[in-house]
Structures are given as structure tokens and as C-alpha cells.
Amino acid sequence: MDELDLLKKDWKRNENAFNQISEKEIYAMLHKKSSSIVKWILIISILEVLLWTAMGMLPNTDEYLDKMGHAEYADYFQWFNYFNYSVILVFIYLFYRNYVAISTTASTKKLMDDIIRTRKTVNYYVWYNLSMIVLSFIVGFIIAFICNPDVDQLRQKVQEDGRLMALLIGFLVVIVAVIAFLAWLFYRLVYGIFLRKLLANYKELKKIDL
Does the global pTM surpass 0.90? Predict the structure, then answer.
């Protein structure tokens, strides 16, 4: 049982005598917990960007494209990375802004609004990342299939046999679905815990506000 549950039990036992004081104490506790949760969301999002950046440095895309004789695609990948990181940095800024807003708010209603805004921002962030993961895999597969000389024979067979094309597309759909599901599980595990805690705080604040 955490500190908030103990405080709520004490509030119920002394509801008539200390109602106003206990409400303020519960609000302060929820305020502190919500601020801490949003701070961790900000920290984890930054660590996540650093992790993906480090992993992105392992395969050298420019060398791979140059080896296949299609170095002209390197510029497109570079601009795609610029766009992706720009959007992620915007999300990190929004997480920081939400953290500042929740940390400095002084009313129950405002704190409830900030919690809802934070939950929406996290959900948008998760769906954006899932979309980018799926899109990156599909684009990478298509470029490798079209440009890689090692799959010339497979490419020729696919052009000659429509059933093989359907089989290849079905295989790609399955692989993309598995990757998307695993990524969704990762984000649900990492950010879902914080979202559930924020929702619980919101429900407790709603009781006080009523």
C-alpha cells in the first residue's frame, strides 16, 4: 500500500473534522506523483533517442547503397533522418513543456487538464514511432529488393511468376506485422505503465474536484 492509499484511509476516518486539510494533502501527493511520472517520460524519451541513434550508426547506409551502385538514394535517407529527428525533438520539447506545466500548476482542474494533455502527447509519440518503424522497414525492403544485385535471380522469378510475387508480398506483410507488434509491446511496456499511473491520478483528482 503506497502513501496515497494510507492518506485516503486517514481522510475517510476523519472526514468530518479534517476534510479540507486532507483534500489539500491528497492533491499535493497526486501533484508530486504526476510531476515525477512526466519527468520519467521525458528522461526515457531522451534515452530512447540516444539508443536508436547509437543503433543507427552500426550499419553504414551510405556504404551499403554505394556498394549496390545506388549512392543517389543516400541523400533521400539523410533527409528522411533529418525529418524524423526533427519530429522526435518536437515531441521531447512537448514532454518537457508538459513536465514544466504539471510541476508549476496550482489547481486541481489545471492539473487534470495537464494530465490529459500529457497522455495524448505520449499516445501520439508512440503511434508516430510505430509508423516510422513500419515505413522504414518497408522502404528498406523495397530498395534492397530493387537495387541489390544479390537478388537478381529472385527478382527475375518474381517478374515471371505472379504467385511468387503474392507469396513475397504475404511474407513481407507477416514480417511487418510481427515487427509492428513487437514494437507496440515495447512501447506499451515502457510508456503504458506511466499512462496508467497518470490515469489513476486523474481519477483521484476528479473525485476531489467533484
Answer: no
